[in-house]
Amino acid sequence: MCRVCGGPVRQFFDFGRQPLSDAFVDPDRVDEEYFYRLAVGICESCGMTQLLDEVARDRMFHEAYPYHSSGSVHMRRHFEQTAGRLSRDHLRGPDPFVVEIGCNDGVMLRSLAKEGIRHLGVEPSGGVAELARQQGVRVRTEFFEEASAAEILAAEGPADLVYSANTICHIPYLESVFRGLDTLLAPDGAFVFEDPYLGDILERTSFDQIYDEHFYFFTVGSVRSAAARFGFEVVDVERLPVHGGELRYTLKRAGRGSPGPAVAALLAEEDGRGLGTPEVFDAFAAGVERVRSELTGLLKELRADGKRVVGYGATAKSATVTNFCGIGPELIDWVCDVTPAKHGKLMPGSHIPVRPTESLAEPYPDYVLLFAWNHAEEIMAKERLFRESGGRWIAYVPEVRIL
Ligand code: DWN
Ligand code: SAH
Ligand code: ZN
User: Atom 1 in ligand 2: which residue has the minimum CA distance?
Assistant: First the structure.
């Protein structure tokens, strides 16, 4: 049943039993892993693409949540630019107030905090919330929903802007979020959020964007219809070249703004592509199977030739790739990553060890599988010497190939 409208959900892919994507495993606690069923479908009534099973939120977002948004220079720059845009477009009045849902380590809010703008982050994962505080950001360690929004209103007054990046798609309980927005936003306040775009996921067969934390896969059409249910309207949309392709949506209360031309243009494009039709999902499913067989085929071949292969980026996304394709330490020796909290742990489900990125050159392997493909440019520039020493990168988005 659809989590937004209660309509019937038509499944289009079942990845089977999967571990939590960000639950890196302590080597002495491998028998305590938690698994759930990862299947995805589209609501035949409102068009919202969503997971069929929901993982309890405290299992995913807690004190030890390991993802640090500031780990990428490219993303730090994206959020600095975003802060500038938001303050020009939405924070021009006297003493404006902005709330960010899922501020993580403060990657965006720290720029606004430095400008002296009244702000508040809402971030349930205690560890990253503390990192944000160390950057001068004010944070409440809790989930954004109807109840917390009412408390924020009582303590701080109405918000001119509520912003959120890569978080709204993590929240199954959208009705509570929208009620919270309705409570907290000033009458003409705006809600701006950005998340991976289903159109890009289907086009690039980036099936690894599908994992426990990513509950919804938005399109302009499905966001417009959900917003309307809760008294809001999409007034602007913009494509963003981050995390493999995202959309930024600007919403206002219905009747408080008029949709710009980009909204109709993108809706027409979605219609033209047949986004949401069974044919498009069948093609995606065939693409997923193709990537699985080509990737495992290539890794087995390299192994048989005696090549050393490691992975780059212990991403949440890679949990789906490794577990769905059956890639373990017999094919990939280890995965390197900059995040200290992931070092010495095992990748969820596949149990491939995680090491610091410094390990890469000790000595360089023959091939590196790029799990953090969304940061390809940044990583390949940083690891130029690997390529110069004769090493080769392996990519699997949009297709399996050796670079
Ligand atoms: O939606 C989400 C996004 C925003 O972040 C969350 N549900 C969880 C997380 O997903 P992810 O882990 O797939 O995100 P990234 O940004 O693709 O993760 C990149 C990983 O690679 C991080 O662990 C950091 C690491 N990395 C690295 O080792 N060297 C990244 C860069 C840029 C590097 O140079
Ligand atoms: N905005 C950051 C973080 C994305 S990771 C970025 O774009 O990089 C998703 C974040 O959402 C996590 O830090 C998680 O703790 C947070 N989160 C999950 N559910 C939430 C909720 N209901 N309210 C606020 N934050 C939430
Ligand atoms: Zn629905």
Answer: 165
